[in-house]
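User: Is it possible to get a 3D structure for a protein together with its bound compound? The compound here is pyridoxine-5'-phosphate. I've pasted both below.
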Amino acid sequence: MILLGVNIDHTATLRQARYRQLGEAVGGNIEPDPVALAFRCEQAGADGITIHLREDRRHIQESDVRRLGAVKGTRLNLEMACTPSMTNFALQLKPHSVCLVPESREEITTEGGLDVVKNLARVARVTDAMNAAGIKVSLFIDPDLEQIELAAKLKATWVELHTGAYANAYYSPGRAAEFSRLIAGAQQAHAAGLIVNAGHGINYINITEVRTLPHLCELNIGHSIISRALFSGIDEAVRTMKALMNPRQ
Ligand code: PXP
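Assistant: Yes, that's possible. Here is the predicted structure of the complex:
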């Protein structure tokens, strides 16, 4: 069975659109609460919850992460940049896993995978620190053979293959080539002893092809699930995605 990690960042995007300046000060009903949504996702069949604490704190706040981290039963995957402050934060929080991602202030969402080749020393420092603390590491990388090779050398547990280029090419002639790159990446990662996850831009349409990737363990999906939940509720959105991921279960 392919596992589903729901990325709930955009719940916080919606909250911040109204409450960014007011924060805790208004008290009472600060909605929507990502932690409450995380519970609902799990009740509906999500296998884990993913959040990205960005340097600019544009959506998820430290208090959200701490509240989620304190909840037993939630398998928390913390996406983070390879910075000393995020490393210290994660070592203190001890989430189930961290996913190392690139981060730039200008991007709207994570664009492109982490360049492990270019940032080898920095990624190695964070990976070593997490492994030593018993926090499992995933590297969010493009399906590029050199990146995958290094991920295995650094002793990451997972790679999360970036499906964004494939999702963007879905309705264009480039789709088949992008999907072939993902297949080759998944095969190479598996052969190197890495567990294969994937994420970014996965929706209720492209999932029928994405789920056929070889050796797939878990998908991290955010935007499409949160968007659908506006119309059908989070329970239906999670359940339907999980069913599309695993049609024969
Ligand atoms: N995986 C990673 C590493 C991400 O950064 C994101 C986006 O925040 C996702 C998965 C989910 O992407 P989407 O919101 O497009 O489903």
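The pocket of pyridoxine-5'-phosphate is lined by residues 7, 9, 52, 79, 99, 101, 109-110, 140, 160, 199-202, 220-224 (CB under 6 Å). The mean pLDDT is 93.
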